[in-house]
Design a protein that fits this description.
96 residues; alpha+beta; 2 domains; two-stranded antiparallel sheet; 2 helices; 17% strand; elongated
């Protein structure tokens, strides 16, 4: 059941929800693997996108590769958001 006015919104909602669930599952699996290996080293990297500016961070021995992956994924996210915005705007103009 969707209240959307465009065809793309329900699909994007499902994709977004699947990505959030995959992120939580990945975090739980990483925590369990860390508990299983007592001498393991931990590295963290991530990006927070504020408007169109990615703020990236990294900590640990593997910080640089994690930062590179985080920056690449944030660029991909920005490109996908731009493409989706253009497609939805085109659909709105065709309907109107």
């Amino acid at each position: 059941m969707s209240v959307s006015h465009t065809r793309g919104e329900p699909v994007l909602w499902k994709v977004g929800l699947a990505l959030v669930r995959a992120g939580f599952a990945l975090a739980v699996i990483a925590a369990l693997l860390l508990l299983a290996a007592p001498g393991a080293q931990v590295g963290v990297g991530g990006c927070i996108i504020v408007l169109f500016v990615p703020v990236c961070f990294g900590v640990g021995s593997q910080a640089l590769p994690l930062l590179i992956v985080a920056i690449a994924l944030s660029i991909v996210l920005l490109v996908v958001a731009f493409i989706v915005r253009r497609v939805l705007a085109r659909e709105v103009h065709q309907v109107a």
